[in-house]
Structure to design on (722 residues):
């Protein structure tokens, strides 16, 4: 059999060149470059659209539904619907302009120089270099947080960081890593470090404290309250980065408990604080963060969902990488799995886990109690990948915590799911999770049309902060003063709600 | 007695009102309060423990079964007098350690120990070492069961062991520990007497420790 030809893809405006065999899904290639697929790559939104400048990419029905004939004629495509069939030069809409979650452009005063937005996650770091004059993204770099070798979740990071020496080690690791990512951004964009005026970093409270060199001991025990949640400002020289000494580096303020500036950024990006209707924002991670609010009142909370959504503690769990089953669909009383990267399946990532359990409930293989109907298991999804009884139990814990958190916050508004205008799902997992499956397992108890994947709202909010003119830091303080942090763990009702939410719903809403 | 079988099943199925009704009915018919424990409540909770271990039952099912067991035992306990009152398998002081608010696991262990015939003094969550020492003294307890769910708070278990030693109570009580980050090695390193990996294991361990 002749080998498949390979094609070359050039990404603009960042000037990345890739090669891959014909037939490769463009989605898989671009995902690895940090491109987001807000609807999970199902052709339901326009978030991943690309402008094909050179080469041929076929149009399918999903694209005809979402793009106008004029757009198609001028070369616009949905990246998630395209496979590689030619050498391509493409431009990414996502990296092109300053837009909000709902695609409305945000107003900013163009100024000279460059800026860097940093989403400092417990697991993943995302950095973008931006032209402060045009709002364009010049380069993107992502990496796994190098602190992860000292613990995967925030609590183990805190434990390591309570002794001074541990704290110093974690602080230096992360500062060096972000410094070197900035060097890579500058190199990729062929600009110089001296042009960087402003850096905005967002992250949860633990990331904030460790980066800024603040004591994490108060975060190690009940009531988990630190007195140092505020905005932290550094100068270029302070951090050992190759920036001009006057360059400003801001770590945005935390909201309370473990809820940090990544969520503050999410509130900025979704404009939740300026709307009359009640809207929600949920970041599904190891620490699930939840925001509910409107113009009058905003509540936020975090709930320890555990690492199940990231594939940890799942018998064949893995991160969303090549070889992971990312989607499971019911077909003719059986299941059909999609594997990332078109290779034989090796494991199950978070979205695949949620799908698999939803499919199991649909097929009657899994009972609402979470028990396998035949009493046994494991269930072979796609050899050699199986789902075990204890995998389902881990998912029940994770989804129970999130669903309970959402319910508790809605309760405080005296509202129910029906009163919510929209629920935004933030973060990478929010992009990939199938909303119908999330609803089927009772993780997100809202009809699909109310649930919107919002992408990396933390990074977007950091970008927004970057484009705010000098001296407007007071606006963060004002916004922050309007946001109330709710300590769910101290609420006796939480435990009962959590237990109630562990079971799966009996039947679908549809 | 077929009624014991019925009560066992009601508890396993988590039917608290049925368990309560059956208990009252059987008492009226002359069944002695002390007989309920060895014939219905303890075997029912042992069965719940077995099903939990085999992943057949999960936290919600275990909690509602324990609630049903309690519906029965709450009626019976005030009636246990004389010889029957002496049958308590032991007195356990339990709680989640200082700095930690997780109580679901601790509650399940407490309820299963109670169903297994132990007297329970539950101090709740965020419990200081001093409070545990006081409770051991006041209740003349022979077991201490501690839980921690965070790696940052499990160190406080060590303070409790030390406080009990300092208070001169260490040879009067056995100490058992549990919780997600806790291990057997950890239990031994802090000078505890044992580690229960889940609620059924904790019950088994408690039985062994009081018998030793």
């Amino acid at each position: 059999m002749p080998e498949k030809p390979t094609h070359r893809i050039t990404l603009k405006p960042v000037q990345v060149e890739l090669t891959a065999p014909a037939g490769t899904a463009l989605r898989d290639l671009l995902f690895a470059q940090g491109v987001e697929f807000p609807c999970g790559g199902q052709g339901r939104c326009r978030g991943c659209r690309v402008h094909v400048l050179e080469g041929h990419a076929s149009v399918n029905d999903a694209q005809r539904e979402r793009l106008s004939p004029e757009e198609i004629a001028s070369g616009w495509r949905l990246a998630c619907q395209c496979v590689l069939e030619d050498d391509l030069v493409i431009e990414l809409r996502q990296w092109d302009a300053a837009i909000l979650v709902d695609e409305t452009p945000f107003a900013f005063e163009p100024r000279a120089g460059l800026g860097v937005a940093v989403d400092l996650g417990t697991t993943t770091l995302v950095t973008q270099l931006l032209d402060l004059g045009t709002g364009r993204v010049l380069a993107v770099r992502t990496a796994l947080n190098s602190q992860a070798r000292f613990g995967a979740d925030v609590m183990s990071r805190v434990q390591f960081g309570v002794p001074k020496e541990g704290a110093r080690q974690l602080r230096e690791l992360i500062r060096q890593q972000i410094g070197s990512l900035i060097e890579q951004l500058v190199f990729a964009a062929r600009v110089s470090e001296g042009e960087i005026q402003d850096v905005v970093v967002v992250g949860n409270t633990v990331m904030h404290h460790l980066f800024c060199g603040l004591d994490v001991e108060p975060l190690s025990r009940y009531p988990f309250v630190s007195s140092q949640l505020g905005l932290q400002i550094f100068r270029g020289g302070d951090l050992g980065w190759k920036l001009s000494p006057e360059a400003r580096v801001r770590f945005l303020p935390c909201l309370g408990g473990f809820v940090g500036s990544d969520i503050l950024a999410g509130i900025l990006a979704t404009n939740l604080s300026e709307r009359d209707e009640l809207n929600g924002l949920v970041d599904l991670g190891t620490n699930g963060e939840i925001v509910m609010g409107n113009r009058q009142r905003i509540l936020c909370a975090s709930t320890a969902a555990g690492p199940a959504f990231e594939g940890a503690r799942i018998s064949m769990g893995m991160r969303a990488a090549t070889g992971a089953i990312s989607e499971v669909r019911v077909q003719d009383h059986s299941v059909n799995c999609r594997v990332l990267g078109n290779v034989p399946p090796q494991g199950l990532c978070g979205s695949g886990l949620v799908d698999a359990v939803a499919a199991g409930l649909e097929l009657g293989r899994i009972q609402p109690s979470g028990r396998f109907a035949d009493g046994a298991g494991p269930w072979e999804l796609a050899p050699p990948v199986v789902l075990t009884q204890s995998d389902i139990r881990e998912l029940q814990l994770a989804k129970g915590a999130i669903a309970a958190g959402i319910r508790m916050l809605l309760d405080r508004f005296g509202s129910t799911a029906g009163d919510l205008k929209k629920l935004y799902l933030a973060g990478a997992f929010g992009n990939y999770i199938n909303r119908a499956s999330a609803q089927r397992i009772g993780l997100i108890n809202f009809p699909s049309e109310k649930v919107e994947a919002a992408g990396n709202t933390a990074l977007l909010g950091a970008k927004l902060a970057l484009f705010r003119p000098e001296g407007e830091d007071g606006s963060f303080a004002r916004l922050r003063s309007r946001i109330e942090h709710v300590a769910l763990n101290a609420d006796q009702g939480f435990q009962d709600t959590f237990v109630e939410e562990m079971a799966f719903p009996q039947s679908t809403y549809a | 007695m077929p009624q014991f079988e019925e009560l066992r099943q009601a508890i396993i199925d988590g039917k608290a009102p049925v368990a309560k009704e059956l208990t009252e009915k059987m008492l009226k018919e002359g069944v002695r309060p002390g007989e309920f424990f060895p014939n219905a409540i303890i075997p029912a909770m042992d069965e719940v423990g077995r099903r939990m271990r085999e992943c057949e039952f999960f936290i919600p099912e275990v909690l509602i079964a324990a609630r049903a067991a309690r519906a029965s035992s709450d009626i019976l306990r005030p009636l246990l007098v004389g010889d029957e009152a002496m049958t308590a398998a032991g007195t356990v002081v339990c709680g989640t350690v200082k700095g930690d608010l997780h109580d679901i696991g601790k509650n399940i262990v407490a309820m299963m120990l109670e169903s297994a015939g132990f007297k329970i003094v539950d101090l709740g969550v965020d419990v200081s070492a001093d409070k545990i020492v006081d409770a051991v003294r006041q209740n003349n307890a022979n077991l201490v069961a501690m839980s921690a769910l965070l790696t940052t708070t499990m160190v406080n278990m060590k303070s409790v062991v030390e406080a009990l030693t300092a208070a001169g109570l260490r040879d009067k009580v056995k100490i058992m520990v549990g919780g997600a980050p806790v291990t057997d090695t950890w239990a031994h390193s802090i000078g505890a007497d044992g580690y229960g990996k889940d609620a059924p294991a904790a019950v088994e361990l408690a039985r062994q420790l009081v018998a030793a």
